Amino acid sequence: MNGSILIIILILRLEIFKQMKTLIIVRHGKSDWDFRSVKDIDRTLKERGINDGYTMANRLLEKDLIPEIIVSSTANRAFHSALIFSRVLNIDGDRIIPDKNLYLSYEEDILSVIYGCNDDINSLMIFGHNPGFTDLANYLSHLNISNVPTTGIVILNFDVDSWSEISKSNLTNEYFDYPRKV
């Protein structure tokens, strides 16, 4: 067999095994502000936040979008939202990782959490807060979202092998959904 044909075959085989990375960005559910003495990190979800969590998790289930791992802010409202999604999507609790770096973080902080994800993981769901999550969604997509509302979801697919390579330039698909979307 000709050497150049062999090289082409090897390149084609490598392309077949190339991985896609799917990032699912979820803003926490609507939180309860009734108790002003409660620290921000400890605020709970309102009933609407709980119900919206089940609604949005079921929309992901209908699309068969089930992440391999969930990383959540350590804030009660974000972690509770992550638990609701894990219940609906039938994800074991040991696949939910709390990360204090997602609590009220900026885009750069969130990216460092994503970049640190093991490259063997191909689908990652993160739970956190605005404005960082809206900024991240706009940085990585062409969606131009003015605000990711509570329990809003941004799904991004990237044609890369490593989380550290994700960018707008290798984005292959994007989707934005939220509870009140018609």
Which geometry do the CA atoms define? globular
Q: Average pLDDT, to the nearest integer?
A: 92
Look at the structure and name the CATH superfamily.
Phosphoglycerate mutase-like
- Largest sheet properties: 6 strands, mixed
Top-tier CATH class = Alpha Beta
Regions with pLDDT < 50 over 5+ consecutive residues? Answer: 12-16
Overall tally of structural domains: 1
Per DSSP, the total helix count is 5
Task: Could you tell me the CATH topology label.
Answer: Rossmann fold
- The CA-CA distance between the termini, in Å, is 57 Å
CATH architecture assignment name: 3-Layer(aba) Sandwich
Order of helices and strands: HEHEHEHEHEE
Task: Give your account of this protein's structure.
It is a single chain. By secondary structure, the protein is an alpha/beta fold. The protein is 34% helix and 18% strand. It has 5 helices and 6 strands, in the order αβαβαβαβαββ. It has helices spanning 3-16, 47-62, 76-89, 107-115, 132-140; strands at residues 21-27, 69-72, 96-98, 123-128, 153-158, 171-177. The chain has a 6-stranded mixed β-sheet, with helices on both faces. Strand 2, helix 3 and strand 3 (96-98) form a beta-alpha-beta unit. The chain is globular.
Which labels suit this protein?
182 residues, alpha/beta, Rossmann fold, six-stranded mixed β-sheet, 6 strands, 18% strand
What does the secondary structure layout of this molecule look like, with pairings?
Elements: H1 3-16, E1 21-27, H2 47-62, E2 69-72, H3 76-89, E3 96-98, H4 107-115, E4 123-128, H5 132-140, E5 153-158, E6 171-177
Parallel strand pairs: 1-4, 2-3, 2-4
Antiparallel strand pairs: 1-5, 5-6
Helix pairs in contact: 2-3, 4-5
